[in-house]
Write a structure and sequence with these properties.
By secondary structure, this protein is of the alpha/beta class.
Length: 391
């Protein structure tokens, strides 16, 4: 390469806050900060207005996490959940409906709100490196469209660049194991309700579950969470064949697994680095759902920056909630088909009401009340009760 072909390097004055990654969590953190008058620049290697589509189901607490109801992103409401084991099934009527949202739509919505609040969003910017700088750290960014490299110093950096976060890697934050998700978009079966989610527990295939989530009167997402991504497609195709469904399209992702030791922050060369969303593994390991929890993490990071507070303290309630999901998942990983049969048979009128009243984003409150309403569930807790008292 001669000198004329070398990429142009541009240097900038310090940016007050930089966000890497146009995820829902990154855009939400940027929006919250800009709304309070902070200068925020967000960089993503893609165009955030044209991100990958994926059908997601979240709880009614999405509106609480956002501070507004995301009408433009909600494509369906789920009013009941049917839980199925090999020999039993139980229907849970929901006091507040679950929300089916389209991932790309929620990202576009948050991008618009961020821009309206004053965030500068730059797509086509690949984050390459971090190096010490005179004013904190210096980000090295390659502008894919224009073909030059930029050096951008900052004292505050938010990493929202997903499961395989490069910000986390360069900041020497411990990486996380990942869990594969695979789902097919199918024609909604005539016998299926457009507002009923079905969940099948089949531990011979997966320690998690299969699901059917209606996204409209005519279409649904059918998928599974698997320990091994290599055989996920075989299992899902076999399941679809059993239900006489044919895939219209396939959607796949890898989701990070939360652990008690996760520390999504770092002080580096005079700069504060915060990780949010999937980059911080802010994901419920019971269902590998991370939209509400990722938004809560983004709000915690924004509060820490705005108030000069400790991010770990701002995250305390979220970490407690995610820790409870980790304990529950530890128990469920030991379940066999007969255990799920027994579990569903123990659901009485009161526990069914409680399951409909409390969402998956209220695991601690829900579990305590269910154990009081049906003490026989304690026998399932025996193998991991020592973990609870040790924490």
């Amino acid at each position: 390469m001669n000198r004329d072909d070398a990429p142009l390097k541009l240097k900038h004055k310090a940016s007050e806050i930089c966000v890497v990654g146009g995820s829902a969590a990154g855009l939400f953190a940027a929006y919250l900060l800009a709304r309070e008058g902070r200068r925020v620049r967000l960089f993503d290697s893609n165009d955030v207005m044209h991100t990958t589509s994926r059908t997601l189901i979240t709880t009614s607490r999405l509106a609480e996490a956002l501070g507004f109801f995301p009408h433009d992103a909600v494509i369906n409401e789920i009013k009941e959940i049917e839980l199925c084991s090999r020999q039993c099934s139980v229907t849970i009527p929901m006091m507040q409906p679950d929300l089916v949202v389209e991932r790309a739509a929620i990202v576009r919505l948050l991008a618009r709100k961020a821009v309206e609040a004053g965030v500068e969003i730059r797509g086509g910017c690949k984050f390459l490196d971090l190096k010490p700088g005179p004013e904190g750290v210096t980000m090295i960014i390659r502008d894919i469209y224009r073909g030059y490299v930029e050096e951008i110093p900052t004292r505050t950096l938010i990493g929202a660049d997903g499961t395989f976060s490069r910000v986390a890697k360069l900041a020497c934050v411990k990486s996380h194991d990942t869990t594969p998700i695979l789902q097919a978009i199918v024609k909604l079966p005539e016998a299926a309700g457009a507002h009923t989610t079905r969940v099948w527990f089949e531990p011979e295939d997966t320690p998690y579950f299969y699901w059917l989530i209606p996204e409209s009167q005519t279409r649904a997402a059918v998928g599974l969470i698997s320990e091994n991504g290599k055989d996920s497609r075989i299992k899902l195709e076999r399941f679809l064949s059993r239900l006489k469904m044919k895939p219209i399209e396939m959607q796949a992702a890898r989701v990070p697994s939360y652990t008690h030791t996760a520390r999504p922050w770092r002080r580096m060369d005079g700069a504060d680095i915060y990780l949010v969303g999937d980059a911080a593994a802010q994901v419920k390991v019971t269902t590998v759902g991370g939209l509400v929890t990722g938004l809560r993490g983004a709000r915690a990071a924004a509060n820490a920056i705005l108030n000069g507070a400790d991010y770990s303290k701002e995250l305390r309630s979220l970490r407690r909630e995610l820790g409870m999901h980790l304990i529950i998942r530890t128990a469920l990983n030991r379940f066999r088909s007969a255990d799920y049969d027994s579990l569903l048979r123990l659901l009485n009128k009161k526990t069914i009401e409680l399951l409909g009243l409390y969402s998956r984003d209220q695991a601690s409150a829900m579990l305590c009340r269910i154990l009081l309403a049906q003490p026989r569930f304690l026998r399932f807790a025996a193998p991991f009760s020592r973990r609870i008292w040790a924490r």
